[in-house]
Design goal:
single chain; 525 residues; alpha+beta; DNA Topoisomerase I, domain 2; 3-stranded antiparallel sheet; 16 helices; disordered N terminus
């Protein structure tokens, strides 16, 4: 096998590096010996390699020969460096270094190699679920095991220096009443707390959590003072932003441990990611628009409210100490892992798998929701299926709504009543109405021509606006909105001032230039 011609300068640099390593490892200087060898060899070296010289062969043993360093001429097209011998001392040190460098096989190395092989094997073993046979009986899985949901942390009472005031006087609340009061205090700066329906529903549910003594004393919400509690939570939020980098890393590690324990399940002997394994903490319901139930208390979900779905022979999730599950169910025809009923709308909440999971990927959901409504034969998600059914009876529902409006019924209350009348349509909710309105509006807009001069992002924006404006897709201003606007206004004013100063400087410079030019002309005369 013929080898390519080796550049002597490159090989020389490699040789220098080898000698440096020997010196560092063994404390022996080899540079002097090397210079003597090279100087002696340079006197005897020819400009060309003999024709009968054999080509360099690959060898696993240490290379004891070093090439000749010399300047190449333009005529040395067939130049090959001449091999030289290293002195016995350098050779002996080289052999010793080679013996020391030979690694000994150990259990740790074997374990590491096995771990790498195992990781590579797992990486290669991708779950090709699309090649598997589908179950005829409609079951979604054969084996399912998980750790259950993560419940919201328990309430921690406020410090003694944080007071709640009623009618100008401090008052100590019971733990349950104090927790609900904190929900309102955190939203004190929000627009919701100024709405009558929100305040009415909150006060009604708050009184249900009070003791008999508290109910007798707290009779009006307008006499309640939550400002000190609100100030405390703001300070807590600011302190959380100022935590050290080490503390952030500690919190991150704790969250990673929780994710590894509860964020994955084993389905049909394959590890799958869970989407929402945290149960929503208690709080106040806000809803969309003028929802008739805004301000009501979203109660804390207890283990006794949760239904667990898993395999019969699997390791059943353990509830928190001193509690039990509502039910442990084996239902292979559903894809949820846990479920419970929320108290506001009376609807079921679920813990589902991540969208990247096998079950979610099997559901062929159309990218454009308008296609789901126009073509009933397409397979689709349950939400779009219900929206498609709504299209068949939406005019009937709206006619009933208009008749109620003509009889002077309160519109917000009517909206909530119509949306939850199951006799109109099974599964009818506000979310279904929003999905239908958005989809049908986008479908109609797709038939409208766009401006030819617009690029693709502008055309997409026009479609999004066409659907967002009629459907009233709005976002409430953030808490830092006013501050951000003030900062932008300050920057704008500063730039305007700088621009004005620059214009004055330019004007003065023009005047000075004209004066200087006139003086120069006058002197020239």
């Amino acid at each position: 096998m013929q080898h390519d011609r080796i550049d002597s300068s490159v090989v020389g640099e490699i040789d220098d590096a080898i000698c440096m390593v020997i010196e560092l490892l063994h404390g022996v200087s080899v540079w002097k010996d090397r210079e003597e060898v090279e100087s002696g060899s340079c006197e005897k070296a020819d400009s060309h390699t003999p024709k009968d010289k054999k080509p360099l062969q690959k060898d696993s043993s240490p290379k004891l020969e070093k090439p000749l360093k010399r300047q190449r001429s333009h005529d040395d097209s067939e130049f090959k460096p001449k091999k030289i011998k290293v002195e016995k001392k350098l050779k002996r040190k080289w052999e010793e270094m080679e013996e020391d460098a030979k690694p000994e096989k150990s259990k740790d190395m074997d374990a590491t190699c096995d771990g790498r092989k195992k990781a590579k094997k797992e990486l290669d073993e991708t779950w090709k679920w699309w090649e598997e046979e589908r179950n005829i009986d409609g079951s979604k899985w054969k084996c399912l095991e998980h750790k259950g949901p993560v419940f919201a942390p328990l309430y921690k009472p406020l410090p003694d220096h944080v007071k709640f005031y009623y009618d100008g006087k401090p008052m100590k609340l019971s733990p349950n009443a104090e927790e609900v009061a904190t929900f309102f205090a955190k939203m004190l700066d929000h627009e919701y707390t100024t709405k009558n329906i929100f305040r009415k529903n909150f006060f009604m549910d708050w009184r249900k959590e009070m003791t008999s003594e508290e109910k007798a004393k707290i009779t009006e919400l307008k006499k309640c003072d939550f400002r000190e509690m609100n100030k405390y939570f703001k300070a807590q939020l600011e302190a959380k932003k100022q935590i050290s980098k080490e503390e952030k890393q500690r919190i991150k590690k704790e969250n990673e441990l929780v994710l590894q324990k509860y964020g994955f399940c084993v389905m049909d002997n394959h590890k799958e990611r869970i989407a929402n394994f945290h149960i929503e903490p208690p709080g106040l319901f806000c809803g969309h628009g003028h929802h008739p139930k805004m301000g009501m208390l979203k109660r804390r979900v207890q283990p006794e409210d949760v239904i667990i779905n898993c395999s019969k022979d699997s390791d059943i999730p353990k509830p928190p100490p001193g509690t039990k599950w509502k039910e442990v169910r084996l239902d292979k025809k559903v894809t949820w892992l846990a479920s419970w009923m929320e108290n506001i709308q009376g609807s079921m909440k679920y813990i589902m798998l991540n969208p990247s999971s096998r079950i979610k990927a099997c559901v062929c959901v159309c990218v454009c929701t308008c296609a789901c409504i126009s073509y009933p034969s397409l397979p689709m998600d349950r939400k779009y299926e219900t929206a498609r059914r709504l299209k068949m009876c939406v005019e009937h529902i709206r006619n009933q709504y208009r008749e109620e409006v003509q009889r002077d019924v309160d519109p917000p209350a009517l909206c909530g009543a119509v949306l939850h009348r199951q006799e109109l349509m099974d599964g009818l909710t506000g979310k279904v109405f929003r999905t239908y309105n958005t989809s049908i509006t986008l479908q109609r807009q797709l038939k409208q021509p766009t401006t030819p001069e617009d690029n693709i992002p502008l055309k997409i924006l026009s479609y999004n606006r066409a659907a967002a404006i009629p459907c009233n897709h709005q976002r409430a201003p953030t808490k830092t909105y006013e501050k951000s606007m003030q900062n932008l206004q300050t920057k704008t004013d500063a730039k305007k001032q700088r621009l004005l100063e620059a214009k004055w400087e330019l004007k003065r410079a023009k005047v000075d230039a004209k004066v200087w030019k006139d003086e120069k002309t006058r002197k020239a005369r």
